[in-house]
Structure formats: structure tokens, C-alpha cells
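haha ok so turns out i had the wrong file open the whole time. this is the CORRECT one, sorry everyone. sequence first:
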Amino acid sequence: MKIAMLAVNAKLYSHQRLKEAAEARGHTLDIINTTRCYINIASRRTEIYYDGTKLPKYDAVIPRIGASITFYGTAVLRQFEMAGTYPLNESVAIGRSRDKLRSMQLMARDGIGLPVTTFARDPKFTEEVIKLAGGAPVVIKLLEGTQGLGVVLADTKRSATSVVDAFRSANINILVQEFIKEAGGTDIRAFVVGNRVIAAMKRTGADGDFRSNLHRGGTAEVAKLTPEERATALRAAKSMGLAVCGVDMLRSNHGPVVMEVNSSPGLEGIEKATGLDVAGKIIEHIEKNAKAGATKTKGKG
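then structure:
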């Protein structure tokens, strides 16, 4: 097969591993810088250009679209979809997962365990929003934040009110969430490929940090999931419509709660923690599912 990967930084561990895994199985994989693509939107013509050259037809495309270019990246991916190229993750599904509010609403609709989450625009409802989330301490998140950035733990009602009011006065959208104290600064990432959880790791935050992101100095080790955690991860992936994703969960007193569903999960942490060939499993999934015109949404919003 001829596979395209949409990625800005070709040198990242995840991107090199996927290229190695594809080539080891006899495929070709071209890493295409998403930001250097441009598209011709014309009736019945689905042309994509890269650095001045029209791209050839690909059998499959792997979107590794960074959060900062979600809008542009999904537009390019839609063009691949409309050309009949099989997407590992569809543009609509990526858009759902990147919108923190929308993703929480979809998972709540489907009955998936979540921390109590509140959202309001008018600052006069600040105290009510904090109260609905269970009161201080609460976690305050920017809707656009990634990798632990834009996440604040407010220990007291006074500090929570100050942080919420500060963000709202700057017209920044935020979520206020219940703080799961019993998680103890750890979370679980379940790596979903297709209809299976193929790997899982427990991430622990750096000393004094309630966030467990590896990018912020956290550590990882292999995790054994309970049947409920495994089922929750699969249901969360299905809610988003993602074939490949990392589902981040906390172990609460009332069962697993989903914090986020990542549509472009890194491979380095999970492969090194578990020793599993996650990249190979992703390529294997593409081999089994890649068919021309197989996109469910066909580029529609």
C-alpha cells in the first residue's frame, strides 16, 4: 500500500516508528508536512498540492495533526477523504475529540463515566458553577489546552473564584471539573486500536504536580486494566468515532472516569512502558480496513 502521514515534525519518535513499521511490512509511507499542503476546492475535483506538486493517489492516510493546527489539518484531511483515501481517523472524529466541551457532552450522552464537569459564560454564575462541580478543590481547564497546559488546580473556593473570573474576564472559555483526589496524581492511558485495547500504562506526575503528563516530567509503567476500565475506553473511542486513540482515565471511588480522548496519541511512552509494538498494530489495522471510499462521513461535517 501507499500511505501518507500528515505530520509537521517528521523526526518525532511516533512518526518514525510508524514509518518503520509500515516499511517493514512492505508498504511505502510518505510523511507530508500538513502546513505545506494546499487544496483546490472545485466541483468534482479533489486536488491536494504539497510544495507546489500535486499529490498522487494514496491508499490510506494517517493524520497526526497537532492541536494548534486542528482547523487547517482537518480541512486537508477532508480533502483526502473526499478523494476516496482511507483515513485512519476521520476528520469529523478528530474534531469531536479536540473540542473538550463537545467530547464531554457526547460521552455524557452515552453514559460514560466522567468527572462532574460544568461550563458557563457569564461570570455572575461563577460560584454556582464551582458548587455544581462539588466545591473546592476543583480543576479548571482551558478548552484549547493540551499536554497538561492550561490546567489549574484551585484548592480553595476563593482561589477557584479568582481563577474562573480571571479567565472569563479575558473571554477565555474554560471547564470546571471535580477534583478526583483519590487518583493521587496518577492516571491510566488505554491505547485503543480498532475494537481492542492493545496496551495500557499508568502515568504518575512529577513530585508536587497533580498532572501526570509525560511531557511535564511524569513517569509511566505498564498497567493492568479492570474489565470496567477496558469497556470504558472502548466506549469512549466509539463515542468520538476514533479507530485509534489514547483514552485517559482516572481511578475514582465510583469507577473509572474519562478525562480526555486523544486522537493523536504519542507512541514513545506506551511502547517503552509496555514493550509492545504499538506502531505495528496500527499498520496492521490499516491493512485490514483500508478500502477506497470507506470513510463513513465522506468529508461531511
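The longest helix spans residues 227-240.
again sry for the mixup
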